[in-house]
User: Fold this.
Amino acid sequence: MKKKVFLGGFVNYINAQNINCRSIAVQLDKSKYDVRTLILSNMSKTHLEGVSIHKVSQNRLSLFYKFLLGVLWADISYLPKHQSTPRMVLFIAKIFGKKVFTTIEGNMCDTRRRSMINSFGGKKKMQKYFKNIPNIYGITQHIVQNAVCGVKLNKMPLYLGVESENFTNIKRSKLKNVVFIGSFIRRKKIDDYINLAKIFPKLNFHIVGNRKYIKFKKQRVQVKNAWKNKYNSFDHTDEMPENILLHGKVNRIQLSNLLKNFDLLFLPSRSEGFPKVILEAAASSIPSIVYSDYGASEWITNGENGFVLDDFSEVVDKIKYLIDNPDIYMKMSKGSELLANDFDWKNIIKQWEQVIDNL
Assistant:
């Protein structure tokens, strides 16, 4: 008899957790599993072969009803969206002995940075929420090792993947175009990216993602009051370099096409889990430069598929190095393809099926 699996994500809305739920729904072996997931009713319709899809509205009653139906129907439920999953559904699942698991995809305990403690409004609230989920997995070893605030994680990480076939490998010969993918917000340390563009005026710097936090007028950055109040002061009189190109928020097909034009991904954030864009870039043969604060050396090997660095001065040095050594850049581009292959969902899904079978 097939196991019934409920995936608690909205697979027609773009964010990392929803994209992962969509990939899991597609990749799970349909001869072994019946799969059900959700879509938002006000977004585009989605069809996934062999997957039962149910509409949900963005109100508490609809969310509660659809999540409850999914959990009670399923033998096993994967619920990654901690702010959208109704708490009462978790409590009911526990009473009925329903098997539920989740993943931790970012900093949980270190309140000096953006953390899950902050997101839940305190450590006790976070602990109370996860008390009803008996099976919790970090998506990296770094996350597992740093979960020291009263929520017990499985000792082995449960990695997420990328659907490499949705991206195109391009033979790249030299560094000309750098890209940042993500929201243009201070938490992402976007200042480092702007400063990098100023240092390398002959390179093109691209920004792909949500820019709702800023307005551009006459090449000057004007920060909304909400941003200025929430974060440290920002020099809004500073001119935006002319070699920065803004692409705005894009869908998955548009992202795949855009990535054909880029040569290097730079993510200046100091607080991440395992950024999905690293694997999407790698599937397009694009190496990455990231900071070392969140354990990226677990999947990036310096000089082979990217660089994991400690500070901004090292970033500047490595970009100069790649400009001067196109042969090294080409080697890293090829190494990125191997990274994407290692984390292709067609391979990663086997670990997920083992978890589902053994819960």
